[in-house]
Fold this sequence. Notes:
Two copies of one chain form a homodimer.
Chain A: H1 2-31, H2 35-61, H3 78-105, H4 112-131, H5 139-164, H6 167-195, H7 202-213, E1 218-228, E2 231-241, H8 246-261, E3 265-274
Parallel strand pairs in A: 2-3
Antiparallel strand pairs in A: 1-2
Amino acid sequence: MKKADDNKKIFYTIVFLGFLAGILKIIGGVVYMSRAVLVDAATSIANILSLIIIMYFISMSRRPPDADHMYGHLRYAFGGDLFMLLFYSFIAGILLPDLVNSVLKGYKVDVYASVYSFSGFMTYVVVVFLTRRIGRVFEIYRKMTYIELVEGAVATISAFTGSLYSFYLDLAGGLSLYSILVFEILSSARILLLDISDVISEEIIKIVSEEITRKGLRISDMRLRQVYQGVYYGEIIIMFPEDMSLREAHKIIDEIERTLSKRNIYVTIHPEPSK
Amino acid sequence: MKKADDNKKIFYTIVFLGFLAGILKIIGGVVYMSRAVLVDAATSIANILSLIIIMYFISMSRRPPDADHMYGHLRYAFGGDLFMLLFYSFIAGILLPDLVNSVLKGYKVDVYASVYSFSGFMTYVVVVFLTRRIGRVFEIYRKMTYIELVEGAVATISAFTGSLYSFYLDLAGGLSLYSILVFEILSSARILLLDISDVISEEIIKIVSEEITRKGLRISDMRLRQVYQGVYYGEIIIMFPEDMSLREAHKIIDEIERTLSKRNIYVTIHPEPSK
Lengths: 275, 275
C-alpha cells in the first residue's frame, strides 16, 4: 500500500513536469519561432498524454476473465498502444501545414527559443530519473522518454544555431524530428499488428515440445499463440496407446499442463489414441 | 478467373474515380474557399487510400498457418483497419489548424465551390454503384462510401448557402463534417480493440454448449474466442466416466470437434475423468 501510494505520487509528478516541459517548449516554438522546438513540444505533450492513456488501458486489462472474455482482458492493454498511436498521428497531421509553410516562406528564429527549449529539456531530465523509480509497466514509456530527451537536445541545438546563423539549421532540425516521429508511428504500428496476430516464438514452441517428448510422448498437432508479452495459450494433440485408460492418460496430461502453466504457457491437451 | 478479372477492373475504376472526386473537391475547397468542401475532400482522398490499404492486408491475411502463426494469418486483416485509422487521424490533424484559423478570422466562399463539390458528389454516386458489384470483402468499405455520399451532399449545400448568405453556414458544415470524422475514428478504434480482445458472443457459447450437453456430457471448463469475424477457436474440458477407454472417449470427442468445425468453430477437447 505504501509502495502504491509512492508510485501514485511519482506518477502525478511526472505528468505535472511533462506538461510543464511541454508548455516551455510551446513558448519556445510558437512565440520565439523555432520549428524544431515546436515539433519537439508537440511530441512532449503527446508523450505525457500517452502515459495517461496507457495507465487507463492497463487497469482495464487486469480485469479477470468473464462470460465474453474467457481468456481474460489482457489484450485490452493494446488499447493503450492503439489510442496512443492515433494521437501521435493526429499530432503529426497538425504539424504538417506549418512545416510546409516554413519550407516555402522561411522565417526568423529568436535565440530565446533555445533558452525555453533547454529549460524544457532539463525538466525532462528529472522525468527520466523519476520513471526509473516506478514499476515495470512503464518499460515502453521509459524508452519513449529517452527518445524525448535526445529530441529535446536536437531541438535546443537547432534553435540556437538557427537563431545565430540561418533559419535553415532550425528547419533541418524540425524536419529531422518530424521524420523520426512519422517513422516511430509506422514502426510501432507494425509491432502492434504483430503482437495481436496470434504470433508464437520458436523459443516457446521448443519449451513445449521438449516437455512432451521427454515424457516419451509424440505430438500429433499443436497450436500455440502469444496473448500478451510473456503469456501464452495453446492446444496440443498428443498420441497415447489406444488401450490406455482415460484415468491414466489424464494423469500424464494434467502433469504436462501444470508444468507448462508455471511458465505462463496455458495449454489444453487432447489425447489421440495411436493405432 | 473471369470474375477475378472483372473485379480487378472495377477496383481500378473505383480508385480512379475516387481520386478524381477528391481532386474536384480539393479545387472546390482550396481554390474557391469552402471549409466544408475541404473537409469532405480530405475524407474522400482518405477513403480511396484506405481501399488500397485494406486490399493489401486482406491479401496478407489469406496466407496459410505457418511455424510462427499456428492459427493462420487471419488477424493481419486488422492491419487494414489499423493503418486506415492512423491515416484518418493524420488527415484530421492536417485539417485542424486551418479550421481554427477560419473560426478566428472568417473567409469568403465562392459559389464555384459548390459546383466542384457537386461534381465530386456525382462521381461518388458512380463509385457507390460500382462497389455494389464487387465481393463481400468490401462490406465495411461500402458502408464508408455511403457516409461519403451523405458528407458530399452536406458539403455541397453548405458551400452553396455559404456563398449566398454567410461564410458561417459553410463553416458550420465544415465543423459538422469534422466532428463526424473524429467521432468515426474513435468509435472505429473501439470496435477494433474489441475485435482483437479475444471476445466471444453468447450465441457461439450457446451453440457449443448445446452440442455437448445434447450428447449427455457435462462441460467442466471452457474457453472460446473470436479470431476474426465468423471464425472461432477454443478449448473445452468435458467430464467422462473414469473407467471409459481412451478410444471410446476419443470417438465422442472427435465427433463433437468435427460437428463444430463445420460452423467455423475449431475446438480442442480435453477429457476429464469424473469420479
